[in-house]
Design goal:
With 342 residues, the protein is of the alpha+beta class. Among the domains are: 71-108 and 124-149; 157-307 and 324-341, Cupredoxins -  blue copper proteins (Immunoglobulin-like), CATH 2.60.40.420. It has helices at residues 2-23, 26-39, 71-105, 121-149, 187-193, 279-288, 300-308, 329-341; strands at residues 157-164, 167-171, 179-182, 205-208, 212-219, 224-228, 233-237, 243-248, 253-257, 272-277. Strand 2 (167-171) and strand 3 (179-182) form a beta hairpin. Helix 3 packs antiparallel against helix 4 (121-149) and helix 7 packs across helix 8 (329-341). It starts with a helix and ends with a helix. Bound molecules: copper (II) ion. Copper (II) ion is lined by residues 163, 224, 259, 261, 263, 267, 270.
């Protein structure tokens, strides 16, 4: 017994530095916003929109699905609210009523000599056929919805979403060589900026309204999951792999999500904030990040054609190696790889 105790103590002691070490890489990231908050409320690098409390974020005391802002999300919400919930409710109430009826009507006092019936062909056909028909009725909209989710239209913009322990970063492979690193804000900063608690970030992922956005997810370390409830979007971010999903939002605004795959100690503290902007404002945002709009019209495949075409209009010189050129070939390959994966 004593040996066991000693062993446990030794294990606990051995484990403590290991835990501390594991938490260590997060420390600088956590310390940076905290230090900034202590001095002055950090200014965002762009004039981001104020979030609206009734859309794109959870409401206090609510149940059910957040208001959907994509066509697929609206279909899925209809599927949930108008098909699945009524079917589930009717079946549950029906089975409950049957149970109560049997308990009361056929209890020993009310029914002293029970029936010996063990088979009833008509009833057996009914209780086989009716569930099959219910499943067929559910399957039709359900399969349509899945097909729509996995057959994306031609993308207007590609965003590569990378999960890290414990923050997100966003790359725009067709829009220049830059990356947006998105860290959680402190509670004070959330308050100052009108952000919902634990959902505010310093730098948002920004996309234009009314455009088809192709999302490629991957990870730097462990499995994360990129999820934005108001878009009906959830896709795992797996190290060494590229997953693809898409959305199209017409309504400008700020929409929040969270990492949805348990990924470590600060899994709950790597929120996702997507700001959907009017295309003109999006162009201004891109510029503020050092990106170019060029990639938005010529999509990835056209960009490759452009880069392989002879005599490009702008020849990058040795003095300006870092300047992102329109139709730059390297990032375009990234989105091509993802297409090939699918
Ligand atoms: Cu995560």
């Amino acid at each position: 017994m004593k040996t066991l105790k000693t062993m446990m103590l030794a294990f606990a002691l051995a484990a403590t530095p290991a835990l501390a070490q594991e938490a260590a890489p997060a420390a600088p990231a956590a310390a940076a916003p905290a230090a900034a908050a202590a001095a002055t409320p950090a200014k965002p690098s762009f004039d981001y929109a104020r979030p609206v409390a009734t859309i794109g974020q959870p409401q206090p005391g609510s149940i059910g699905i957040q208001p959907q802002v994509t066509a697929i999300g609206q279909d899925a919400q209809w599927m949930h609210d108008a098909v699945l919930m009524p079917v589930i409710t009717v079946i549950s109430l029906f089975v409950l009523a049957l149970l109560l009826w049997v308990i009361v009507r056929y209890r020993r006092v009310a029914n002293p000599t029970p029936s010996k019936t063990s088979h009833h062909t008509v009833i057996e056909i009914i209780w086989t056929l009716v569930p099959v028909l219910i499943l067929v009725v559910i399957a039709v909209p359900s399969i349509k919805l899945i097909a729509a989710q996995y057959s994306p239209p031609k993308a207007d913009l590609t965003v590569k979403v990378i999960g890290h322990q414990w923050y997100w970063s966003y790359q725009y492979p067709d829009n220049g060589d830059f990356e947006v690193v998105s860290n959680i804000l402190t509670e004070d900063q959330d308050k100052a900026r009108g952000e919902p608690r634990l959902l505010g970030v310093d730098e948002r992922m920004v996309v234009p309204a009314g455009k088809v956005i192709k999302i490629i997810t991957t990870s730097d370390d462990v499995i994360h999951s990129f999820a934005v409830p108001a878009f009906w979007t959830k896709m795992d971010a797996v190290p060494g792999r590229l997953n693809e999903t898409w959305f199209k939002v017409d309504r400008p605004g700020v929409y929040y999500g969270q990492c949805s795959e348990l990924c470590g100690a600060k899994h709950a503290y790597m929120p996702i904030a997507v700001e959907v902007m009017e295309p003109a404002r999006f162009a201004a945002w891109l510029k503020s990040k050092g990106g170019t709009l060029a990639g938005e019209k010529p999509t990835a495949s056209e960009a490759i054609e452009a880069s392989s075409a002879p005599a490009p209009a702008v020849e990058p010189t040795a003095t300006t190696p870092a300047t992102p050129t329109p139709g730059i070939a390297t990032p375009a390959t990234t989105s091509q790889a993802a297409t090939a994966q699918n």
